[in-house]
Amino acid sequence: MGCELWRQLQLDRFWSGKLPRGREGVAWPQVLELLVVNRLIDPGSEFHLHRQWFDHSARDVLLGQDFAVAEKDRLYRCLDRVLEHQQDLFVHLQQRWKDLFDAEFDLLLYDLTSTYVEGEAEQNPKARYGYSRDKRPDCKPVVIALIVTPAGLPLAYEVMAGNTSEKTTWRGFLDRIENLYGKARRMWLMDRGIPTEALLPT
After folding, report:
1. Distance between CA 138 and CA 118 in Å, rounded?
2. What residues have CB less than 8 Å from 22, skipping those under 6 apart?
3. For the chain, first and last CA: distance in Å?
4. Which of 6, 11, 155, 160 could in theory staple to 143 by disulfide, Cβ–Cβ 3.0 to 4.6 A?
5. Span 49-67, pLDDT tens digits
6. What gap in Å lies between CA 101 and CA 2, rounded to an integer?
7. Residues 154-197: tens digit of each pLDDT
């Protein structure tokens, strides 16, 4: 089912033109598909996928690839290759949501969540001590802003520094959404702690 959804969203076509085949003969779009389907079925780390999940699934048959596609360093590197195509992906998904589900975008939901990293994370400038939604004040969090439709279809996300205040996130993200999708008389739903009186009249 995960593979079929990948095809229905035409992500195989989208990524085949953006992610080149690796030097070892493994196509990066297949690595990414493996990561996405794993998150749908059995969410876990890349290391868990590499050590346990791949061998206990039929992914080798469905992808037509052997264990090389799940090599741990390849899994880690894949997401770095995806990041530069983030905006193009948002536009692509919006169109597919329209085509497949007749989705409308006049009402959008905006919310924040977070995750955290263990250790110093010195090479991650966004991992900073701040409010811990995960009740882990000993770990550095990162904040994740997400926009979805009322049906739960994701449209955009942004990763922010862990010490980012909720009240400072919306204005900049809203500007970027309008640059992507154009200005509209749309309605936004969000927690009351996010918008300030200074932002509401806009």
Report:
1. 8
2. 28, 31, 74
3. 42
4. 160
5. 777 776 666 666 666 665 5
6. 17
7. 988 989 899 988 777 777 777 777 777 666 667 778 877 776 66
Q: How far apart are CA 41 and CA 134, in angstroms?
A: 23
Q: Give SS3 for 166.
A: helix
Q: Exposed, middle or buried by CB within 10 Å (0-12, 13-18, 19+), for 70?
A: buried
d(CA 52, CA 131): 33
Is the distance from CB of 116 to CB of 142 less than 8 angstroms?
A: yes
Question: Model pTM?
Answer: 0.79
Tell which residue, 164, 175, 9, 17, has the closest CA to residue 101.
9
